[in-house]
Amino acid sequence: MSEPILDITGLNKSFGPVHVLHDVDFGVRAGEVTALVGDNGAGKSTLVKCIAGIHPYDTGSVRFNGADAHIRGPKDAAELGIEVVYQDLALADNLDIVQNMFLGRERGSSWLLDEASMEKAARETLASLGVRTVKSVRTPVSALSGGQRQTVAIAKSVLWNSKVVILDEPTAALGVAQTKQVLDLVRRLAEQGLGVVLISHNMADVFEVADRIDVLYLGRLVADVQTKDVTHSQVVELITAGRSGELGLARPEAVAL
């Protein structure tokens, strides 16, 4: 088994008296899709925001590409090569695809943008991901479908030589055809050697594209398993009860012993 490109050990995070994450160990491997699942309030969003540098973690260690790393803010995460596509996508409807993909990172001088270079890079990035549903990179985002918007947001995240891409509910509110397009894109990201984290409540999506499944239960990582080694019902039990058979939290009687 390859060493994780992102390796988090013993991560803890509290908000005042509320201990949200408890000694979480979490790894992401290059070329794999890791599904991060859990019920509402399990700590998924907090873990992602700690990885992205939005929330400082209290204790724990982070290694990236085999070296110790310190994530003190979003800039640190971005410099390492960690990009997050949040559920709201953070796209500007009044701008076109190129302008959105380079928003805040425009090429050119302070008085003249290099539109040709940015347009070429946007086209090449979409082409490298096998995206064929977007006719023109100059299409305003307001004219795109939900699936196309998600595609643009994902393409934007890989434009900057990212190594780990975290996708927060990428198929939420999408139709069947659009969901398939996005899941195909998720697989292509992993095939290109990126480490992909998929956060989803949709178990069908998880079992279709994920290589591994990590389950959070009340702030604790209770399972890190190969997708092929578990069933749908086992994962649901881990999400809702923290254990399923020999997987997950120890049984109370075992703890008493």
From TrEMBL:
Matching Pfam families: ABC_tran
Domain ABC transporter: 6-243
Keywords from the named record: ATP-binding, Nucleotide-binding
InterPro entries on file: AAA+_ATPase (IPR003593), ABC_carbohydrate_import_ATPase (IPR050107), ABC_transporter-like_ATP-bd (IPR003439), P-loop_NTPase (IPR027417)
Keyword field contains Nucleotide-binding: yes
GO molecular function: ATP binding; ATP hydrolysis activity
UniProt keyword Ligase, yes or no: no
Gene3D superfamilies: P-loop containing nucleotide triphosphate hydrolases
Record-linked PANTHER family: CARBOHYDRATE TRANSPORT ATP-BINDING PROTEIN MG119-RELATED, SUGAR ABC TRANSPORTER ATP-BINDING PROTEIN
The protein, known as: Sugar ABC transporter ATP-binding protein
Organism listed in the record: Amycolatopsis echigonensis
Biological classification of the source: Bacteria, Bacillati, Actinomycetota, Actinomycetes, Pseudonocardiales
